[in-house]
Fold these 3 entries.
Entry 1:
Amino acid sequence: MLQNKSRTTSDLCNLFSSSVSEFIPGYIPYYLADLVPMQKYKNSEKQIQCTVVATSERTLDVILKTPKMTLYELGVNLPCSLPIESMTDLSPFDDNIVNKIHYLFSEVNAVKCSMVGDTLTTFNNRKYPVNMPLSCYQVLAQDCTIELKFMVLLKKDHASEQNHINVKISDIDVDLYPEDNDVIVKVNGMEISKDNLPYQDPSGSIKIKQKGEGVSLYAPSYGLQNVYFDKHSWKIKVVDWMKGQTCGLCGKADGENRQEYRTPSGRLTKSSVSFAHSWVLPSDCCRDASECLMKLESVKLDKQVIVDDRESKCYSVEPVLRCLPGCLPVRTTPITIGFHCLPVDSNLNRSEGLSSIYEKSVDLMEKAEAHVACRCSEQCI
């Protein structure tokens, strides 16, 4: 019968310390002073056993056995929630218990960005719809320091309109994409079959393994806790020390979601569509219909407006996705963006506008049309 005897903290500390010190001279386990002794059992001689059970995401049961007594403390409250869903995969790299515990607690502090359907949730937990252009990669998340330790790209395939993920780490290029009911994994262009998973690169710092219906890539030493991908969704987690140093569609991971829509130029836009399109990696020519057939450019407002009592022409200060020359849009989406206006007799020409207009102030907000799918003729240039 277990007995929860009432003792002072000092009594428990002295009692336990003297018991343990018989086997570990000089050892004072001050942090276990609150453990309550059980009735004596015949525990193993010359052996100390500690059992910790996670009874919930925020509580633990602790049982400590010494040769002379068993101590316990039930319902120990934790300062943070344990990632229970990750308990079966504490560390993807080895069986070292220290590494497993380190990985577990890094999961607690990791920030997550995910996408289900067409709704993206940023590292800062802001949700917005994404109307993705076809065949063009967009930057989901990257290390925006000068080290550029990783980059995660996403594109929607032109033929299937399914998501493809590309992860760039050091000299390793990993592609993840659906095919039938499976997820295909390619490392530097070479397909890795299911039978060869888990896969670990020669340096031992990157690992890819099956997880549920999808595949997870782990590279915590590069700042990527993991990248998960399946047929219907994806999820990116970055380690705690990358907070505030990321950029892309997933944001800065700094806890500040009022400035979430920041473009690569540093401009803050109010449009989620304009923000998403600003992170597209555009093309400059169309060699293949499966490649990106769009580029980013400043567009001129179709109508003339009166600004400061003068008839003016206006150019967008935010880049807009447009089909390449020789290509026609087959799908568009409206966006509301900022325009900078100049007198109609201004000599601002097209090339000058493209090079300097993005630094100009916003005079008015107007709708424009962004292209999200294009078709090119043989005369495409």
Entry 2:
Amino acid sequence: MGQDPFTVLLDSVCRHFTKNYFYIPQGYWWTLDRCANGTVPDGFILLGFSGNPRLEMTLFVVVSVFYTVTLVGNSTTILLCHLDPHLHTPMYFFLTHPSILDLCFTTSCIPQMLVNFWGSDKTISYLGCAAQLYIFLGLGAAECMLLLVMAFDRYLVVCRPLHYAVIVNPPLCHKLVSLVWVSEVFGTLVQSPTTMKLPFCLHHQVDDFVCEVPALIRLACGDTHVNELQISVIGVIFLMGTLLLILVSYSHIAQAVLAIQSQEGRSKAFHTCSSHLAVVFLFYCRVTAVYIQPRSHFSKKGGKFLNLFYTMVTPTLNPLIYTLRNKDMKGAFKRLFGKDRRASEE
């Protein structure tokens, strides 16, 4: 039985409108299911920097290098904290989790990004896009809570040094980490389903290189006020709420440091907190760049470059910040690889 004439006409009109008014990368097309029968789309087009193939090839090389450094750096951090007995302390127990988050975050988006940069096919499946969105939101919420937990740990180290070992015991560490991963589930379930149920425009073009909430909201042709309100509420709970508590912790830390009489004591307290402060700064800069700026900002190429910078640079810098400024990590690195080298020589 042939198709209904009205359905054929509607599909033809949709295709004509899309081909004439929207850019479709060469070598790609799929049926516009939402236009034809109201089902979810088969996939999306991640435009990224598709208008500049030379730039994409340059970015392919740059992102590949950063991704490799991220994998090596974060894996090394996890390995050192697990294998070296000197690092079996609450501080380094917490330190392994940012590396786990960075590995999950980069692996969820950069391989797809590299595929899109390499060739003319810019598509991502509907399920792949939904998975990226779920992972981004979940890991973002988890990192907010983890930075807060680490700020609490720094507060106890500086302000309650004599009671630190009693307060921060293994059961408490595991409870705090459990809270971090539970917050990931909450952050994902609140925003992701409503975003993926939006009535997306027929061209299915995501003006970004990953499936994040702002880009998908821009793709919607219907009312998005509920989604924008959800972003604001989640931002207040996870971003502003945790940032406020982190600042409160560091205000107490600053008072304790100023009360230290010796310069050596102040310097030691500063080095204890400086790495964590640097990571907090990088994280909130990225969140501000992606989620807090007005919607029109994201349609500009500069906004995409900024998002790309924080997507690939921040996970690369995190292990470097924690290891290059940390004598314990350097010592563990020398002990581990020194033993391996001596074993190979023997």
Entry 3:
Amino acid sequence: MSEFWLISAPGDQENLQALERMNTVTAKSNLSYNTKFSIPDFKVGTLDSLVGLSDELGKLDTFAESLIKKMAQSVVEVMEDAKGKVPENLLANGVDLPSFVTHFEWDMAKYPAKQPLVSVVDTLAKQLAQIETDLKSRTAAYNTLKTNLENLEKKSMGNLLTRTLSDIVSKEDFVLGSEYLVTLLVIVPKPSYAQWQKTYESLSDMVVPRSTKLIAEDNEGGLFTVTLFRKVIEDFKTKAKENKFTVREFYYDEKEIKREREEMSRLLSDKKQQYGPLLRWLKVNFSEAFIAWIHIKALRVFVESVLRYGLPVNFQAVLLQPHKKSSTKRLREVLNSVFRHLDQVAAASILDASVEIPGLQLSTQDYFPYVYFHIDLSLLD
């Protein structure tokens, strides 16, 4: 599973023994894989500053998670036909995400632990905000290019009734530069080819004999040329419609066709040129954002543990990776049982449904006598 539970308990003898019991029970029952989660000794500051940081870190945690989801989705969209290779591009410090989380070490160079906590949080917030700003501008430019290219490509798809004809026809298919004559393009259903050949010359006056030619086909029909005098265009269109032949509104313009082809070529070239740099930027900055997110989780554990367990700072953080989705309920029950002594009043309200505590609403699903945070990597799959 790509799901982790990050918990902490006081570091006194009683709770260290409780952690040992938790490890023993979860290992025997094959509920989870547990590892210590190392968090440095930060400058605590005042209680008021910790309360403020608790709220700020909660918001920053949500923002960071949202950002890495957006970046993961951007990688999926950019890679298009190579989506099977997406996981190998979503790494943190060059390793897969679960490995990074289970072997997490605080980066002292990026986020010095000797600084005040508020400074560390501010550094993380500014880093993530800059990544989000760059993500918006880079993906917007690429997506505009991609959309323009897709719109041009759509024109060359579909049937002969709707698609562009500039990549099908050639100059030799038309009578050009004549004051009196014009070449029209007519779509004829496949079952009506013989009828077209027999009748097109008589659909109107002034149709040039033997001037029709089949130049393209799709599943439904064929695209034929026919040359006639300009003065009978409307009459010919009317008669053609009566016979279920469709005249396409198309007049050969060499400059326009050349412009369309050059635009397609330019967009393809621009997309190819932007693809590599954008993907590299996404890989590097996804890694940076993900690393920052796990550091935020570590900070939240520290701040909440100090607020919950008091001073001096003495707690042990543990990372649990549930083995199966079906075992998470049992794992929760084990943890609540092992650490019930941390909050006897809340524990009693869970165990005895008849006990009601004003303002306290708990269930076995949201009751945590210990500090608890959730890391769900499956959302990035």
